[in-house]
Write a structure and sequence with these properties.
The protein is of the alpha/beta class and 461 residues long. The mean pLDDT is 94.
């Protein structure tokens, strides 16, 4: 088998890994890079392989850094099946239609934002998305499927977001069975809402994420105590809590955590506003899969007439509803996207709360270098939001333990559960620091040196 890494190499975006097993060519994920989609020379428009030569595409989950270029792949000539879990398939359609809409808006405004581009074109159109959706094959967890001659795919629950999967591929080589595993993004243990990541044994080749490979995040119980204190402070001061959150996964988790807080403590419930039309549509999908959650989460959510909703939770769809929140008196909680504060409605909310010490900004997601969210979490004195500068006086709390990504301890636990004796292992989807810190941990369970591949590096294993 040969594996070539075409994305998420010493970075956290652009997941795309090409497997060659005999004469079969299988692409794992086809994600978006964190670079301008309009740039005609940008890495989002470069495929270092022929899409027409692929036999199958296997998707781990529906975050844009794992699915964001699938319509572009179709546009460039791919005609085969795209495998995903049922929930991931449902979410993928919503995410990529929204991406196409944003790109249309980017093209419309390109003359202002990108005057250097003569003829701006979107990475893909809505028609490409609909064409791609027709190629989706829904494959439930734990059901092996032959996706190429002698190559069997099994999805295992990754516990990262709804529908997320560990990719297990079994095949024969030289008369003996071999097993390849790609973790996608692994979830944390004991986080209340989603089950722990599935354990896989007898792994020959492992490709693993490393987002928090250098961090030990707070356990769920401590995070809930911290959230309790933040909400209590906000009630006492009459302020606002603003939570930047990704529309998929983090928003639903934070709604659930607030529901749990109000249901299991003496804390007075306060209004919770989810200001993201995309998050609202994705939450509808979450309600379609009640069996995806832990029994404890189901028991709590069954107390309300609607999962991820109650009389204290309101979903804001219109711009008028969004603007109204900026002038409404607290105490209240606003959950809005984007998770790194780089786009979307969150910037307007931040602009209105950032200078008032009675307010709080709660960071619950990974913040990439150079983003507004990273600057806020680093505690700078002043921040630029929508071309204006503001003093950062609001209380800032970094609760990155609410992340859907496994931390160093979770990853070490998962490696140990495999039984070790892994033949070859590779780390992807991490910045250099976390990746290099995690490599020695994984090395204890791996016979050959753990590798951290660079862009387009290829290995025979």
């Amino acid at each position: 088998m040969r594996i070539t890494f075409h994305g998420a190499t010493r970075q956290v975006t652009g997941s795309a890994h090409l497997l060659e097993i005999g004469s079969s060519r299988i692409l794992l994920d086809c994600g978006l890079f964190d670079s301008d989609r309009l740039d005609p020379a940008g890495q989002n428009r470069r495929l270092e392989f022929d899409p027409r030569s692929l036999d199958a595409v296997v998707v781990s989950h529906a975050h844009n850094d794992h699915i964001g270029r699938l319509p572009f792949l179709m546009k460039q000539g791919y005609r085969g099946d795209i495998y995903a879990t049922p929930a991931t398939a449902d979410i993928t359609g919503i995410m990529l239609r929204d991406s196409a809409r944003i790109q249309r808006e980017d093209v419309r405004m390109a003359h202002v934002r990108h005057p250097e581009i003569e003829d701006p074109q979107p990475l893909f159109e809505i028609s490409d998305v609909e064409w791609m959706i027709e190629r989706l094959v829904r494959l439930p967890y734990e059901e092996p499927r032959e996706i190429a001659p002698g190559v069997f795919l099994t999805y295992r629950d990754a516990g990262h977001v709804l529908g997320s999967a560990i990719v297990q591929i079994d095949y024969e080589e030289g008369g003996r069975a071999r097993r390849f595993v790609f973790t996608g993004d692994l979830g944390r243990r004991n986080t209340g809402l989603l089950p722990d990541p599935a354990i896989i044994k007898d792994v020959d080749v492992l490709v693993c994420e490393s987002t928090y490979g250098d961090k030990e995040l707070d356990p769920y119980e401590k995070l809930m105590k911290q959230l309790h204190a933040i909400v209590a402070r906000t009630i006492r001061l009459g302020g606002k809590i603003v939570i930047p959150a990704f529309s998929l996964g983090r928003t639903q988790r934070m709604v659930y955590c607030l529901q749990e807080l109000f249901a299991t403590t003496k804390l007075r419930p306060i209004p919770v506003y989810v200001d993201s039309p995309l998050a609202s549509r994705l939450t509808d999908i979450h309600r379609d899969y009640p069996d995806a959650y832990t029994p404890e989460a189901r028991a709590l959510m069954d107390q309300d007439p609607l999962y991820f909703g109650s009389k204290y939770v309101e979903y804001c769809m219109s711009f008028e509803d969004s603007r109204r929140l900026n002038y409404q008196q607290g105490p209240m909680v606003v959950i809005s996207s984007s998770g790194m504060c780089e786009a979307g409605r969150i910037r307007h909310h931040l602009r209105h709360v950032v200078s008032d010490p009675d307010n709080a900004i709660v960071i619950v997601s990974y913040q990439a270098e150079g983003t507004l969210g990273r600057r806020i979490s680093d505690g700078v004195e002043r921040v630029q939001i929508l071309d204006q500068w503001y003093d950062l006086n609001a209380a800032v709390y970094v609760l990155d333990g609410f992340s859907g990504h496994a931390d160093r301890n979770d990853l070490a636990w998962w490696f140990e559960q495999t039984g070790g004796d892994i033949d070859h292992a590779f780390l992807v989807h991490g910045e250099p620091g976390p990746m290099d810190a995690l490599a020695p941990v994984l090395q204890r369970f791996t016979r050959n040196p753990v590798r951290t591949p660079g862009p387009h590096e290829s290995f025979e294993v």
